[in-house]
Amino acid sequence: MRNDCVQFEFVGFDPECEVRNFISTIADKLHLSSPSDSAIKVAMRLSKGVVQASCRIASHAGTFVADAISDNPIKAIKKVEEKITEQLESWKSRRFLNDEYQITGEERV
């Protein structure tokens, strides 16, 4: 499902194929849950044995951002996934509230 809307950046390491595929799968899942016009960037940096992972999803509906630190990339991306998923679920639960007001300019009483 991934297309040009998903970017990856790895600094300080080149993840093994298995790890890269896992991260890619997480990004694909997040993309499917994101607003339809989303652009996603997943960045991972290894420094002094610590992995810093971040994900930024930008769309007209809003921006969703999460960061995590761990001793390995799998744990880090799982933490990021949890945080972003919470944000997306919150957005989904309220995205159609007052929909009639947005369409007609009049609130239904």
What is the CATH-assigned architecture?
2-Layer Sandwich
User: What is the string of SSEs from the N terminus onward?
Assistant: EHEEEHH
Strand order of the largest sheet: 1-2-3-4
Please, what is the CATH homologous superfamily?
A: Ribosome hibernation promotion factor-like
The major beta sheet can be summarized as:
4 strands, mixed
End-to-end distance, in Å?
Answer: 42 Å
Q: What name does CATH use for the topology?
A: Double Stranded RNA Binding Domain
Q: What is the domain total for the residues?
A: 1
Q: What's the Cα radius of gyration? A: 17 Å
Q: What's this, in brief?
A:
The chain is α+β, with helices and mostly antiparallel strands and 109 residues long. It has helices spanning 17-33, 73-94, 99-104, and strands at 6-11, 39-47, 50-59, 62-70.
Walk me through the structure.
This protein has 109 residues and is α+β, with helices and mostly antiparallel strands. The chain has one domain: Ribosome hibernation promotion factor-like (Double Stranded RNA Binding Domain). The protein contains three helices and four strands, in the order E-H-E-E-E-H-H. Strands 1-2-3-4 form a four-stranded mixed β-sheet, with helices on one face. A hairpin with a 2-residue loop joins strand 2 and strand 3. Helix 1 (17-33) packs parallel to helix 2 (73-94). The longest helix has 22 residues, at 73-94. It is elongated, with a radius of gyration of 17 Å.
